[in-house]
Every structure is written in structure tokens, then in C-alpha cells.
Design goal:
The complex is a heterotrimer of chains A (about 170), B (about 400) and C (about 100). Chain B is mainly α and about 400 residues long. Chain B has helices spanning about 5-20, 25-60, 75-85, 95-115, 130-155, 155-190, 195-200, 205, 210-225, 235, 245-270, 285-310, 315-345, 350-385, 395-405. Classes of the chains: A mainly alpha (about 170), B mainly alpha (about 400), C mainly alpha (about 100).
Chain lengths: ~170, ~400, ~100
């Protein structure tokens, strides 16, 4: 066991454990806070994969925006989000079966692939993933079009969200 | 030479090696020692800040401030800490215990984590993260989460109202803050704070005064200090999110707020006032620490000056100011400065800076003209005669009016 | 050394937990949380494949950035819908919202 492996194991136990709490806990605010823990663990994984920008962006976007929005929505819809009563469908057992079958199938499919246990290659020392990513996102030969389309999507989604949530009665 | 901190570090490292430890273990121990030293130094400074804050606010309000305990009352914060420690620790009924206790730790912890990227001098810094500026933004997001947790877990209506206001304020002021933070990144061609300081042969505040001002204003809003202290507004929602906290838990929030103010001063000093740069700081890095804290404390004083001079703004004004003024202004200044940066060659730093300064002045002047025109039309609108419903004058009202006018 | 398989299995497990959340939870916000978990699992895979298979091409990270943008858009619209429905129907239980028009 190298130190990196130990860190990976601790992180993945944290991610999976808190993800389980997200889908099982009754109190929705607690579920949102567990979601934060899980997403933070994913950010740690990004650091281990030497994608520092994604790690920080993960914290800014998921914890700073998405999780806070969710907590806000839970508080706004508080009257029905009481902890009483079951929080799951009556046929939740089928959900367990489907999820477990999918996990088994995915693992079986992946383990039959010959690149399954690729060892980690060395990053060339002069390559800087951060500036590479920045160049790629705005370079016409690379991803400038998807990047712009994503920003237009975000803009239209935000305008749409305002339109949908607008309370016309109160103006 | 002239850098005792690096010397001590080297000596300690050699000592550990001479004990026959592995290189990995030695670097781990050195990292832990570095973290402990920076964190405890900052926390000791925090205790001193209590005294500074109380003394300065006293001067602003024409008082003396604490002056009984020790010379100039300098031991007063120790007395404060002892008082907070021996107070009863109350857990409100219906509070969410774990979340409730976690929130103050997050409030102080996120502020301490900010010091990991602040370069104190050319040789003394936690780490030169290549996404340093984004790291600062990310920690701001986590501290927002801490305040929401405090507000929700207290099981108190006012605390929850404070949390709602926090979301509205912090999430919206993050937008112009992040946009304005991009300007020093463009100027320095790097997001690492050490590189940004290295690039400031001319302080960025002289190249980009408008972004510096936007960062200062939005940082005060992120701090939740007056005039943006709606999230704790004593007279409206009785201290907001930390209404239920007592003893040292309240103390952590208080310490976190004071330290956050100084840290924001340090961040602005690093990004716009040249960080540790000053005469002789290159050859004697220990001087750099001195310059850094001078600049950070000056900005801290500016923040206090604003806090104790301005009244609280109303919540709709706060949001309008952000979305209708700061966000468009920061977008305009970012785009204009990015275009100018492409056009003007960086061969002569002086010409480049003068052009940038000129652009800033032009944008600032146009903004003021726009504001003036808006204010004029708003005044016209207010001054227009409006139909007023007048009640029928009754004889009693008429007599009372005449009597009041005669007296 | 951590082989690629560890990341893939972790991502698969996270995806399945998210799927369970989407299928089994009643509350619409909780369903959105499950979707977020699934998107994160996808992102782990994208970044892990980038790091292990094609570290010289930045495609994996670029796609992960797109996923961030899509996730933010999805949450904004989803929460707006939930709040709008709550205002009209006073419920955010997904099973009760079974009419096309109301």
C-alpha cells in the first residue's frame, strides 16, 4: 500500500458513504449536506488525477452554486419536505435491483476490457494541463464551438428558470 | 541571506535528516510544521485584531476604547476570550446538533485556509497554487455554506432569515467579484498569487483602479460588514445567523469575521498593492513580510473606516446595486481591458500601464456621466406633482391645524 | 500506484447509487441530487480516461467543463420547475405530479 493508494481508498469510502447517505437519509437538508461531502471527495479525486482546475471549479460550481441552490429550494418548499413518512417509492426494491444489476453489468463489462488496469502514465514535465485546457477551450481548432454553445445553453437555461419561477400574481 | 525563516527551515530539515528519517517523512513533517506555524501565528494575530478593532471603532466614535487591562488595554482581548470560554454553552431546542456545531468551525476554518496561498514574502508562502485566485473564490463559497448551515441548524426564524439574506447577498456579489478578479489574472498572465506579485513591478492598482475598487466593494459584501451587514443586521433580524450561538462558538464566528477582514485586506494587497513588494524586499525577504502586513492592515483599516462611517443599505438597494451597477461595470471593464491588452504591446511597461490607466479613467468618467443622468431623471420623476387624495377637512382637524401652526 | 480500474469501479458504484436515488426517492429535489451524483460519476470517468489513456490530448478535461455547465443549467431549470409546481400544487412529491396539464 502506497500513501496514494491509502488516500484514494479513504476518499472513495467517503464519496460512496456520503452518496449512500444522500439517497437514504430522510432529512433533505442533511441529504444536501451529504451531497456536499460527496462532491468534495470528487474534487479530491480530481487533484489526484492532476486536474487542479477541475477540482477548484468543482468546489466553486457544485458546492458554491448547486448545493446552496438545492438547500435554498428545500427551505422554500419546507412544508411538504417534513421528515415524517417514508421518503421512498413503494417499489424501491426494484430500484435496488436495477442499480445492483447495472453495477454488476458495468463491472463485468469493464473487467473484460483489456485496458482495464492501465498503469498511470507520466505527465511530460513541460506539459501544463491548466494552460493546455485554457488554450483548447478558446482555440478555433479545438473546443471553442462547444464552449460557446455551452455558454449559450447556460444563458438560455437561466432566462428560462427566471421565466418558469416567476410569480405572475405578485408581479 | 537576511532570511531567518528559510535558515530555520533548512536547519530543521538537516536535523531531521541527521536522525535518519526518510525524505518523504521529512517533507511531511516540514509541511505539518509549516501549517501549524502559519495557523497559530494568524490566530495570535487574530486575538490582537480584537483589540485593534475595538480601539479603532472607539476612535471613530470619539471614545477611548478599552484602556483598563494592561497598557492601552492591550490585554483586553485575553479577558474577552476568558469571558467567552467560561460562558454557558447552550444548544437550542430542536437544533440540529452536528450541523450546529460544525458551522462555526467552518466559518473560521475557511478563513485560515486562505492563508495557504497568500505569499507573505518572496520566500515565505504556503504554496504557489497555479489556480490560486479560483481557490480564493472556492473558499468563499464554502464559507457561505457554513453560514447557511448555522442559520438552518439553529431552528430559529431570525437565523433562517439571516441565512436567506446570506444566499441572496453572497451568491450575487460573487459574480462581479470573480469578474473583477480576472483582471489581475489577465495582467499577470497567471492565476498563481506568487506570480501575480512577481508581475507587479508597477502596482496593479495604478494600472486597474476600477477593478481594484470593485474587488474592495464586493469583498466587503462577502464579509457581510456594514454597509452590507444585512445578514446580521442587529436592528432587523437580531444578529441573524449567529443569534443562538453562545460562548466560544460565538467567539469562533467573531474571530472568523475579524480575521476574514484582515485576510481580505491581504488578498487585495497581494492582487493590487504589490503584496510583499517594497524597497529592499528582494534582498531581505523578512522585510517583505513587514510590507505585506503594513498593506494588509492599511486595507483592514479602510474596511473598518467604511464600516463605521456608512449606514446599512436596504436589501433591494443592495441587490440593485449589484446587478444593475457592479456586474455590468465589471463586465465592461474586463472586456475593454482584455482588448486593450491585446492591442497595446507589452514592450514598454510604462506606456502599457499609462494606456491601461487612461482606459480606466475613461470608463470611470463614462460611468459617472451615466449615473448622473440616471439620478437626474430619478429626481425629475420624484419631483413630478402627483395626485394626492385629500380627506375632507373636518372642523376639528381644521382647528387643531390652526392651533398647531399658531403655536 | 493506482490502476485505472479503481477509478472506473468507483465511478460505476457512484453512478449506481445516483441511479437508485433517482428511481427510489419521492421528493423531486432528492431526485435532482441523484442526477448530480450520476453526472459526477461520469465526470470522474472522463477525467480518469484523460489522465490514463490520452494525457497529451486535453479532450477529457474539456468535456468535463461542458458537463459542469450542463449540470448548472439543469439544476437551475429543475429547481425553477420544482418551485413553480410547489406554488401551484403545494407538493413536490414526484408521484403526485402525474398530469400533463393543471
Amino acid at each position: 500500500m502506497t500513501p496514494l493508494q491509502i488516500i484514494f481508498l479513504i476518499t472513495s469510502v467517503g464519496i460512496l458513504g456520503s452518496a449512500l447517505m444522500v439517497v437514504t437519509t430522510r432529512n433533505l437538508v442533511h441529504a444536501a449536506l451529504w451531497l456536499v461531502v460527496s462532491l468534495f471527495g470528487v474534487a479530491v479525486l480530481y487533484v489526484m488525477l492532476s486536474a487542479a482546475f477541475l477540482a477548484v471549479a468543482q468546489v466553486v460550481i457544485y458546492i458554491g452554486a448547486i448545493a446552496i441552490l438545492m438547500i435554498f429550494a428545500i427551505m422554500l418548499t419546507r412544508r411538504v419536505a417534513k421528515d415524517s413518512g417514508p421518503q421512498t417509492n413503494p417499489n424501491w426494491t426494484w430500484a435496488v435491483v436495477v442499480a445492483a444489476a447495472l453495477f454488476g453489468g458495468l463491472t463485468w463489462l469493464l473487467s473484460s476490457w483489456n485496458g482495464f488496469s492501465t498503469p498511470i502514465p507520466e505527465l511530460s514535465s513541460r506539459a501544463d494541463p491548466l494552460s493546455q485546457l485554457g488554450q483548447a477551450l478558446v482555440s478555433p481548432n479545438a473546443y471553442v464551438l462547444p464552449f460557446e454553445v455551452a455558454s449559450v445553453l447556460l444563458l438560455s437555461a437561466l432566462i428560462g428558470a427566471i421565466m418558469v419561477a416567476w410569480d405572475r400574481r405578485s408581479g | 541571506m537576511g532570511d531567518p525563516i528559510t535558515l530555520i527551515g533548512k536547519w530543521l530539515e538537516n536535523l531531521l535528516y541527521s536522525w535518519g528519517l526518510m525524505p518523504g517523512v521529512v517533507s511531511l513533517i516540514m509541511a505539518v510544521i509549516g501549517v501549524v506555524v502559519i495557523a497559530s501565528a494568524v490566530l495570535v494575530l487574530d486575538i490582537l485584531l480584537v483589540w485593534v478593532e475595538r480601539k479603532v471603532v472607539a476612535r471613530f466614535q470619539d471614545r477611548l476604547g478599552p484602556n483598563r487591562v494592561g497598557p492601552f488595554g492591550i490585554i483586553q482581548p485575553i479577558a474577552d476570550v476568558i469571558k467567552l470560554l467560561i460562558k454557558e454553552d447552550i444548544l437550542p431546542i430542536g437544533a440540529d446538533k452536528i450541523v450546529y456545531n460544525l458551522a462555526p468551525i467552518m466559518a473560521l476554518g475557511t478563513v485560515l485556509l486562505l492563508w495557504a496561498v497568500l505569499p507573505l514574502s518572496s520566500t515565505v508562502y504556503g504554496t504557489n497554487l497555479n489556480v490560486g485566485v479560483l481557490y480564493i473564490v472556492a473558499l468563499g463559497a464554502i464559507s457561505t455554506l457554513g453560514i447557511i448551515m448555522a442559520g438552518w441548524a439553529s431552528n430559529n426564524k431570525y437565523a433562517l432569515l439571516g441565512a436567506f439574506r446570506t444566499v441572496a447577498q453572497m451568491v450575487s456579489y460573487e459574480v462581479p467579484l470573480v469578474i473583477a478578479l480576472l483582471v489581475p489574472v489577465i495582467l499577470a498572465r497567471s492565476m498563481g498569487l506568487t506570480d501575480i506579485v512577481e508581475a507587479q513591478s508597477i502596482w496593479f492598482v495604478f494600472i486597474a483602479p476600477i477593478p481594484a475598487l470593485i474587488v474592495l466593494i464586493t469583498s466587503i459584501a462577502e464579509l457581510g460588514r456594514a454597509p452590507f451587514d444585512l445578514i446580521e443586521a442587529e436592528s432587523e433580524i437580531v444578529a441573524g445567523f449567529h443569534i443562538e450561538y453562545t460562548g466560544m462558538k460565538f467567539g469562533l464566528f467573531y474571530a472568523g469575521e475579524l480575521l476574514h477582514a484582515l485576510t481580505v485586506g491581504g488578498i487585495i494587497a497581494t492582487l493590487f498593492l504589490g503584496g510583499w513588494r517594497g524597497p529592499g524586499a528582494e534582498t531581505y525577504p523578512i522585510l517583505g513580510i513587514f510590507y505585506f502586513f503594513i498593506k494588509a492592515l492599511f486595507l483592514y483599516w479602510v474596511i473598518m473606516w467604511i464600516k463605521y462611517s456608512l449606514p446599512r443599505i436596504r436589501i433591494d438597494h443592495m441587490l440593485n446595486f449589484n446587478w444593475k451597477f457592479l456586474t455590468p461595470l465589471s463586465l465592461v471593464i474586463l472586456i475593454v481591458m482584455a482588448i486593450v491588452d491585446k492591442i497595446v504591446p507589452k514592450t514598454s511597461m510604462l506606456v502599457y500601464s499609462l494606456v491601461m490607466l487612461f482606459v480606466n479613467v475613461v470608463v470611470g468618467w463614462l460611468t459617472l456621466q451615466l449615473l448622473r443622468r440616471n439620478a437626474k431623471s430619478a429626481r425629475m420623476r420624484v419631483a413630478e406633482p402627483k395626485p394626492v387624495a385629500r380627506p375632507e377637512p373636518s372642523p376639528t382637524a381644521a382647528t387643531s391645524q390652526t392651533s398647531s401652526s399658531s403655536s | 500506484m493506482i490502476p485505472l480500474s479503481w477509478y472506473l469501479i468507483l465511478a460505476a458504484a457512484l453512478f449506481c447509487i445516483g441511479l437508485y436515488g433517482v428511481l427510489a426517492r419521492k421528493n423531486a429535489v432528492a431526485i435532482l441530487m441523484g442526477i448530480e451524483l450520476m453526472l459526477n460519476a461520469v465526470n470522474i470517468n472522463l477525467v480518469a480516461f484523460w489522465r490514463y489513456r490520452t494525457p497529451e490530448m486535453i479532450a477529457g478535461q474539456a468535456y468535463a467543463v461542458m458537463v459542469f455547465a450542463v449540470a448548472a443549467a439543469e439544476v437551475a431549470v429543475g429547481l425553477a420547475l420544482i418551485i413553480s409546481i410547489y406554488r401551484r400544487r403545494s407538493t413536490i412529491v414526484a408521484d403526485d405530479i402525474d398530469m400533463l396539464k393543471f
